[in-house]
Amino acid sequence: MKKMIIMVVFLMCVIILISGCKTEVNKPEYICKDGTVVNDASECKAITTTTAEAPTTTIASTTTTTTTPPTTLKIGLIITENSIRKGSQSNDYISGIVLNNGNDQEDLIKIVATFYDSDKNKVGTASAKPSQSTLDPGQSSPFEISFSKDLNYETFELEAR
């Protein structure tokens, strides 16, 4: 009985914590080609690469991982993390996790990457579906978007639709 009471109290605390979470979605964020997260695409111009770069995670010496705050367009869907992986052939990849943070089931989900040059001009798009096409509230699913290495971009935005 004592274990049951402790479990109920624990679950109530978790529910209270989750219900109090808020995600700031009004301010778009951009990811520069070097993986740096900025509030405005024009800030990418000021970034220079030195031997003392910000820490990144490298896997097989071709992967740069950057975790960013959630980006959202569709109510309930947020992208909780994303990373850029350099491919060995003609494509690079953006992978991440999409979360249904809403109260309703979401289906036919699509993740869209929009690429911009240094003047904030749109230079391309790429999209993919997450591994799970339908997400119940609280569920998440990984995604991976393939795009051409030849794409000359400075920043990109991710949208969950």
Give the overall shape: elongated
Distance between the amino and carboxyl termini: 46 Å
Beta-strand proportion: 35-45%
Assign the structural class, choosing from mainly alpha, mainly beta, alpha/beta, alpha+beta, or little secondary structure: mainly beta
**Regions with pLDDT < 50 over 5+ consecutive residues?**
21-27, 46-74
Give the topology string: H per helix, E per strand.
Answer: HEEEEEEEEEEE
Largest sheet: number of strands, sense, barrel closure: 5 strands, antiparallel
Number of strands: 11
Query: What is the share of helical residues?
Result: 10-25%
Strand order of the largest sheet: 2-1-11-7-8
Helical segment tally? 1
Overall pLDDT confidence: 73
Rg (C-alpha, Å): 18 Å
Write the layout of secondary structure elements.
Layout: H1 2-19, E1 30-32, E2 37-38, E3 63-66, E4 77-85, E5 91-100, E6 106-107, E7 111-116, E8 122-128, E9 134-135, E10 140-148, E11 155-160
Antiparallel strand pairs: 1-2, 1-11, 3-4, 4-5, 5-10, 6-9, 7-8, 7-11
Overview of this protein structure:
With 161 residues, this protein is mainly beta. The protein has one helix at residues 2-19; strands at residues 30-32, 37-38, 63-66, 77-85, 91-100, 106-107, 111-116, 122-128, 134-135, 140-148, 155-160. It has a 5-stranded antiparallel beta sheet, with no helix packed on it. Strands 3-4-5-10 form a 4-stranded antiparallel beta sheet, with no helix packed on it. A two-stranded antiparallel ribbon has the order 6-9. Strand 4 (77-85) and strand 5 form a beta hairpin. It starts with a helix and ends with a strand.
